[in-house]
Design brief:
Layout: E1 3-7, H1 13-27, E2 28-37, E3 58-63, E4 77-79, H2 80-86, E5 93-101, H3 104-107, E6 112-114, E7 116-120, E8 126-128, E9 131-135, E10 142-146, E11 151-161, E12 167-176, H4 183-195, E13 202-211, E14 213-218, H5 233-239, E15 241-246, E16 249-256, E17 269-274, E18 282-288, E19 296-303, E20 306-310
Helix pairs in contact: 1-4
């Protein structure tokens, strides 16, 4: 896999607290932003594969949406341990969380993926808590299950670290009053306003939809050959299935304030989710549902010190 590395100059967590307070307070009735010791994220309600988000923090953007549109590239299959090696992560221990497309070649159909795994004493010694979300062919219902392999496909955005405890940014937000319906969108736009496109600030972590309701999409199975290629983005959007889920929902997120020099083809924000309570809720986070005055979020994020752009798709020019 061809890999491009970009080293980041991350601001301190204390600086980010000051940076994010105003945009969050403008969008939510009640907010807090602080630096805290990371709680044990292995415990409920987060159920991550490692305790924290610290140690050798980095982000990978692998493949990308051009591998889906205008036609799925079924040869784009990735192993997350191999991605960890491309990210120069230690084989002694580490973790990956994030958002991507699932291993259709194993599941038997196209699906969403919420990566959530760790390893110790070798990449082969995995604790794989990754969730797969699919649309059942027989009923059209959303189905959530644990992954049986560490593979993904088409595209994936990953936050990697040693999974150690350490300081993180804690954000709470309740009762949206502003126009930005996406919690991650509010954070990202606040970073962009503060740092412009001249400095990239990248975050990874987990947040909980603690109360209220939010909207998600789940990709169905790939269209038939007769229905391909996707003619435009509207057709692609209409192909997705949309679902509103009640809290609690665990969300694994990667976001960037900007693409460095607009040269890496980054997906600027990507968040995938799963229910900690059942097997019928998960997918790609969009935003809280309009009119959900009781929306409440609780988030833990850390900064990345490097971005790895892996297997960047070659997009034909018009």
């Amino acid at each position: 896999m061809h890999t491009q590395k970009h080293t980041l100059s991350a601001p301190s967590l204390e600086e980010l607290v000051e940076t994010l307070q105003a945009p969050l307070a403008a969008n939510y009735e009640h907010t807090t932003v602080s630096v805290v010791p990371c709680p044990d994220l292995r415990k409920a309600p987060f159920h991550l594969a490692t305790e924290g988000l610290s140690g050798d923090e980095k982000i990978a953007d692998v493949g990308g949406q051009p591998n889906l549109f205008p036609r799925p590239r079924l040869d784009c299959i990735y192993s997350m341990p191999d991605i960890a090696k491309a990210m120069e992560m230690s084989s002694a221990r580490g973790s990956l969380i994030g958002a991507g497309a699932g291993p259709f070649h194993v599941v038997g159909q196209n699906c969403e993926l919420a990566p959530n795994l760790s390893w110790q004493d070798g990449f082969e010694n995995l604790d794989n808590q990754t969730r797969i979300v699919r649309i059942r062919r027989d009923t059209g219902a959303v189905s959530l299950q644990k992954s049986t392999c560490p593979d993904c496909a088409l595209m994936v955005n990953l936050y990697g670290s040693l999974g150690e405890p350490g300081p993180v940014i804690k954000i709470t937000a309740r009762k949206r009053k502003g126009p930005e319906k996406s919690f991650t969108g509010c954070i990202r736009k606040g970073l962009l306003a503060a740092y412009s496109e001249s400095r990239t600030v990248s975050l990874g972590g987990a947040f909980l939809v603690k109360a209220g309701k939010a909207r998600f999409h789940v990709m169905p199975d790939f269209p038939s050959e007769e229905e391909l290629p996707f003619k435009d983005r509207n057709q692609l959007e209409n192909w997705l299935t949309y679902h509103d889920y009640e809290a609690p929902i665990v969300c694994l997120s990667v976001l960037h304030s900007a693409d460095p020099d607009n040269a890496m083809g980054l997906r600027i924000e990507h968040t995938h989710c799963f229910s900690p309570l059942g097997d019928n809720a998960g997918g790609h986070y969009h935003y809280d549902v309009e009119g959900a005055e009781e929306i409440e979020y609780e988030a833990y994020f850390n900064t990345a010190k490097a971005i790895y752009r892996v297997d960047m798709p070659v997009v034909a020019s018009d």
